[in-house]
Design goal:
- This protein is mainly α and about 700 residues long.
- The chain has two domains: about 5-70 and about 390-445 and about 485-685, 3-Layer(aba) Sandwich (Collagenase (Catalytic Domain)), CATH 3.40.390.10; about 130-335, Neutral endopeptidase , domain2 (Neutral endopeptidase, domain 2, Orthogonal Bundle), CATH 1.10.1380.
- Helices cover about 50% and strands about 5% of the residues.
- It is built from 30 helices and nine strands.
- The strands form three sheets. Strands 2-3-5-4 form a four-stranded mixed beta sheet. Strands 6-8-7 form a three-stranded mixed beta sheet, with helices on one face.
Amino acid sequence: MIQHSTPIKAAIALALYGLALGAASSFAAGQALAPAAAPDAASTRPATATVLSGDDFFAWANGEWLASTEIPADRGSWSSMGALADETNNRIIQLVEEAGKDSKAGADTRKAADFYQAWMNESAIEAAGLAPLKPQLAKIAAIKTRSDLSRVLGQTLRADVDPLNFTDFSTPNLFGVWINQGLTEPTRNLPYLLQGGIGLPDRAYYLDNSPRMAELRTKYQEYIAAMLKLGGYDKAEERAARIFALESELAESHASREESADIQKANNAWRTRDFAAKAPGMDWKAFLAAAQLGKQDRFIVYHPGAIQGAAEQVQATSIATWKDYLAFNTLNQHADTLPKAFAELRFAFYGKVLAGTPEQSPRAKRALSATTVALPDAVGKLYVDKYFPAESKAQVQRMVADIKSAFERRIDKLDWMAASTKAHAKEKVRTMYVGIGYPDRWVSYASLKVTPTDALGNVLRAQEHRYQAELAKLGQKPSHSDWAMPPHVVNALNLPMQNALNFPAAILQAPFFDPKAPDAANYGAIGAVIGHEISHSFDDMGAQFDAQGRLRDWWTKDDLAHFRAASQKLVAQYAGYKPFDDLALNGQLTLSENLSDLAGLAAAYDAFKLSPTGRGSGVEADRAFFAGYAHAWRSKMRETALRRAVLTDGHAPAQYRTYTVRNLDAWYEAFDVKPGQRLYLAPEERVRIW
């Protein structure tokens, strides 16, 4: 994927498993980046003409855009992807609003329109107050025993995480569940249990002792108290202190993001009977029954330490504190569909404090995001029918075929890889399912009740509908053609266990893809995205799965050793980039995306040079190819958002991803990059893997 987040959150975050957006800051001498001078330091970038491509290719290609572009007040960052997503969302808002007035709209289209209308009906939300949450809050208030607590915790379990495709490994509920084929059993779906239960983005926010993190913890605790007070709870400060202490204990047992990305550490098969022995403290029978998983005998416990730590806290922490914790989480999760005071309070912390975003997005955009979460295929079909012609799909399918062929040819030329490893690598490429534009089958929402006057009720019913749909997979055979991303999201996705790719319709438009643009620009932009997603099947995680999506070692010992050694060179290269004096990129955390950027760009370049217009083309065409790549990465971030991204995102900020070019010989030739220029790497220092 080109960015991070859970499958549903990705619809809002506009992210890709393989493309991320970042900020610009000055390139210093040597291999490191100098600190940003100000939160929006990128806006002071010199124009293109004053920067040599070999000193800073990102600024050379995007200097004018950086100098003339301001980050919108309701965003923590802005980019070519953000602008494209914004334009797409405006189109969809119009479609949804028109559908609400169309008496002939189909059933699912009508439900999407009604969901959106209810979200926009602020007067109805104000009038309802907390009433829609009263049943949930009453259930929490009635907890008397540890078994009661376990039962209520089980009822909160939701299928809202996908650890193999995003770097958001947590859920606001105590645990998350993910339904997919077994890591070593590709013919059977299993439930995966994952860590969760914390309100800050990552365990580091609780454990890092820097002054900045300490300040954020203080403000978060103040936010908890303010939300409880608004919800009518007395002694809010005392309750908040206990809730924060509980979350801190949960965070202590969480796996780090680097550990979460190590799929070998996640392969923990537990039987139902194992939970009581391996994670004592919780009434697991009550929990699993309430989660509708009581009949399941096998689980994959993705984060065993966190599951054990949470179970310990169920026993060790007072029931009163757990009740306060659950009440706060209920208010916090649903603040956007509670009266305005709740939504504004939530934005003041999560938007302004954590993301550095000055203003909240217009309600229509937030309503569309919520509708996308609830009825992704209904909204996506509206967009596809209007804006994605069959000709575009056919053209992209031809590019996919070209780039897959180029990748196979690159595999054939590898002098370090054994014939057996090459054969299986090519099998993965040949058997890969590539979804273009939209899924083969649209999801039906016939069983979902939606009304135009009950925003919160619609949200709760949609969450339950999605959970039931995921649970139903436990009785079905895995499908390699299922989509995990709505068609109207500016994003792309690799699904390693399905050996499949998704390229939603919304990313298949300029600046990524323009059916009227020269092949050089299209191969440099969407071609590199396609290559990137294909390459995820051969990054440090994807390479551990075979063509059937089974976790299996299909490498020879020497091949694997070479791959890992070469990968560490890329880790070191990215660890040398420093956006701030006190903060460098994490080369290990971003390795999967960096590997895919490198291999994907190289494969896209090869495919372009073999295309009808690329064959025999010269320097100008190559310059257009690499410029197309850099233009797709135009991005600016506020300091707060950039710091958070460096700490928690599996993607390097966009500027540094543009620097992937310094590993390709063709880039040096196209731009006459010489020793002494800041991006120059000697041939033996350039990372070459695929």
